[in-house]
């Protein structure tokens, strides 16, 4: 055929076509060689392109978009250093079971593989492997369609996770006949196929729950991800079993629900006889299911899509390997009226314990010290959000996170986004942009001053795209606490009296500096009403925090610490 007259396309266009064909409408990125023109083309073709200041934040935005939508979020980066900057976010997505695809341009394969010193040289596919659920490279332009299909399947199916897709510059620039190109694209059918539980596994789990006197349902972020909100609520209410949400499962049932055992957390973990885990792992966040937090005799139901999660920390008597949507539907269909009945004594003691703890907490919450402490400042945030269930709450820090998890009530599913499984700092601004761009709803990011520092430059991104993100910095002058005045900077200290509010003013956003709870509450209310980027510098007592927040016991102790020197 005469090549002059043959219609041609190239790798750039095929990537955009593959994304659009699969309903992917947003890219979070940092531009540069070799993806600049690719991003321009994507934008011109109607894909929303959000340019960030650092790839880690773009990756975090993509990952949380994946969590919120069940579709892989896309992060696009440049070769080697840009790719590596995005890798922490990819690993974090995999750890948290969020579907995400890190797409990165890469340099000349022939030069990279002989280590001849290319611009931004690196074997990125190999580097990504240990941190991703899957890692692929497209070596031929006609394989772009297959590359994206494989990446989408891998990210979204089964236990979701982060996937790496390598696009060498030469592939982007390669041409292909239009007719062959069209045939090479794949529209993925059913990227997250249902995983139906066996009827035996459902019966076994219901039998065990029926034998329980002191049952507990523990909801994790897998349950939030599954978007089975109605069925989960129906099962909890029909069985009358107390439930405990992990932090990102808060709001699946509202925190003020009568069956919530959140205020009696230690009591129920220690005293339940049968625990039904729904999309929650028995990892460090649950003390590995082991004493003294848990009883030796506790028996477990575990609903999880990943078969190899079962028995990872404690024997699971009734595993239900399935996706949670299918599993909850099967539970509701099989449940007989009156089959499961927690004992009245158990429900009574959970209620009593809750009452006691709520009263204890009320005393702390009602105090109004100057300067503010974590409890009083969070009460102000809670009051400001009390009639705004639509607001997404992002939360990170140590004390800021640990107190925030307990004090900030959620009413809607998937509206609390936090440091998650890794306890990683710096997710805040990426998650805020991801949540705002996916939902179009306002976001309040409650950030420790140190946590904010890992991602703070993205307030420029937030201002550039005019996103309704209100960042509240709990400014206690440091990691956990501030330094004593007049002492040289310690490893945990940060500058005293920093005015983070002035940073956002440099970008045209609204800054607030507040020292009192009433002013903090008003600033949040006003900023949300304005619907524009804002940053509130909230002064917190630098002596109020504790080392490592609520997980101080995880710090290794020096064997020599108590010996005379
Ligand atoms: P949390 O930190 O809230 O306790 P984890 O991240 O530890 O939650 O656990 C989430 C679990 O949910 C993972 O084991 C994952 O395999 C599982 N999961 C994720 N999505 C689904 C789903 N749709 N159906 C079933 N299980 C899921
Ligand atoms: N680096 C990364 C990426 N993640 C981490 N978790 C840490 C370092 C260590 N770290 C924590 O575990 S919490 C924290 C760090 C640096 C910051 C705590 O200070 P903060 O919060 O100002 O954010 P509080 O309210 O002062 O405790
Ligand atoms: Mg701090």
Give the full name of the CATH homologous superfamily of the largest domain. Thiamin diphosphate (ThDP)-binding fold, Pyr/PP domains
Give the biggest beta sheet: 6 strands, parallel
* Distinct helical segment count: 22
Order of strands across the widest beta sheet? 3-2-4-5-7-6
Strand content: 15-25%
Average pLDDT for all residues: 96
Q: What's the assembly state of these chains? A: single chain
Bound molecules: adenosine-5'-diphosphate, ligand TZD, magnesium ion
Radius of gyration: 25 Å
CATH T-level topology of the largest domain: Rossmann fold
Description:
The chain is of the alpha/beta class and 565 residues long. The protein contains 22 helices and 19 strands. Helix 2 (36-44) links the parallel strand 2 and strand 3 (48-51). The chain has three domains: 3-184, 3-Layer(aba) Sandwich (Rossmann fold), CATH 3.40.50; 199-352, 3-Layer(aba) Sandwich (Rossmann fold); 367-545, 3-Layer(aba) Sandwich (Rossmann fold), CATH 3.40.50.970. The model has no long low-confidence stretch (mean pLDDT 96). The strands form four sheets. The chain has a six-stranded parallel sheet with strand order 3-2-4-5-7-6, sandwiched between helices. A six-stranded parallel sheet has the order 15-14-16-17-19-18, with helices on both faces. Strands 10-9-11-12-13 form a five-stranded parallel sheet, with helices on both faces. The structure holds adenosine-5'-diphosphate, ligand TZD and magnesium ion. Magnesium ion (MG) binds next to helix 19.
């Amino acid at each position: 055929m005469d090549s002059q007259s043959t219609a041609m396309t190239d790798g750039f266009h095929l990537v955009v076509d593959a994304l659009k064909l699969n309903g992917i409408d947003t890219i979070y990125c940092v531009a540069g060689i070799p993806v600049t023109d690719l991003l321009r083309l994507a934008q011109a073709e109607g894909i929303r392109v959000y340019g960030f200041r650092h790839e880690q934040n773009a990756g975090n935005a993509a990952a949380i978009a994946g969590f919120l939508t069940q579709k892989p979020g896309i992060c696009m980066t440049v070769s080697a250093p840009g790719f590596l900057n995005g890798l922490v976010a990819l690993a974090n997505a995999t750890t948290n079971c969020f579907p995400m695809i890190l797409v990165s341009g890469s340099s000349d394969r022939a030069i990279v593989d002989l280590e001849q010193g290319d611009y931004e040289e690196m074997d990125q596919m190999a580097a990504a492997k240990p941190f991703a659920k899957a890692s692929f490279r497209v070596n031929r332009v006609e394989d772009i369609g297959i590359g994206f299909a494989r990446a989408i399947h891998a990210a979204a199916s089964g236990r979701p996770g982060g996937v790496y897709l390598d696009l060498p510059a030469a592939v982007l620039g390669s041409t292909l006949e239009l007719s062959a190109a069209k045939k090479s694209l794949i529209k993925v059918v059913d990227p997250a196929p249902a995983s139906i539980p066996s009827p035996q596994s459902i019966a076994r789990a219901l039998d065990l729950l029926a034998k329980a006197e002191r049952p507990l349902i523990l909801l994790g972020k897998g349950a939030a991800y599954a978007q089975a909100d109605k069925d989960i609520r129906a099962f909890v209410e029909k069985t009358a079993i107390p439930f405990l949400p992990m932090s990102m499962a808060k709001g699946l049932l509202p925190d003020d629900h009568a069956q919530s055992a959140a205020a009696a957390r230690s009591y129920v973990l220690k005293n339940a006889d049968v625990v039904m885990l729904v999309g929650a792992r028995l990892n460090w966040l649950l003390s590995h299911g082991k004493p003294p937090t848990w009883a030796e005799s506790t028996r477990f139901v575990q609903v999880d899509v990943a078969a190899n999660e079962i028995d990872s920390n404690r024997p699971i008597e009734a595993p239900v390997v399935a996706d949670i949507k299918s599993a909850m539907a099967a539970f509701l269909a099989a449940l007989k009226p009156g089959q499961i009945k927690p004992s009245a004594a158990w429900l009574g003691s959970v209620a009593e314990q809750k009452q006691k703890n709520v009263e204890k907490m009320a005393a702390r919450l009602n105090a109004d010290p100057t300067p503010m402490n974590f409890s009083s400042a969070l009460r102000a945030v809670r009051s400001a959000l009390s009639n705004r269930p639509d607001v997404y709450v992002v939360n990170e820090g140590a004390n800021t996170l640990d107190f925030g998890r307990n004090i900030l009530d959620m009413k809607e599913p998937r509206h609390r986004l936090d440091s998650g499984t890794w306890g990683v700092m710096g997710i805040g601004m990426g998650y805020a942009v991801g949540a705002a761009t996916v939902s179009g709803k306002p976001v309040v990011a409650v950030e420790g001053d140190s946590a904010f520092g890992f991602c703070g430059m993205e307030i420029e991104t937030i201002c550039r795209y005019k996103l309704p993100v209100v960042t509240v910095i709990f400014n206690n002058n440091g990691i956990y606490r501030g330094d004593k005045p007049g002492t040289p900077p310690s490893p945990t200290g940060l500058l005293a009296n920093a005015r983070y509010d002035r940073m956002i003013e440099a970008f045209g956003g609204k800054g607030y500096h507040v020292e009192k709870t009433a002013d903090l509450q008003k600033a949040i209310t006003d900023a949300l009403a304005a619907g524009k980027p804002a940053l509130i510098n909230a002064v917190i007592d630098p002596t109020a925090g504790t080392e490592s927040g609520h997980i101080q016991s995880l710090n290794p102790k020096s064997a020599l610490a108590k010996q005379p020197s």
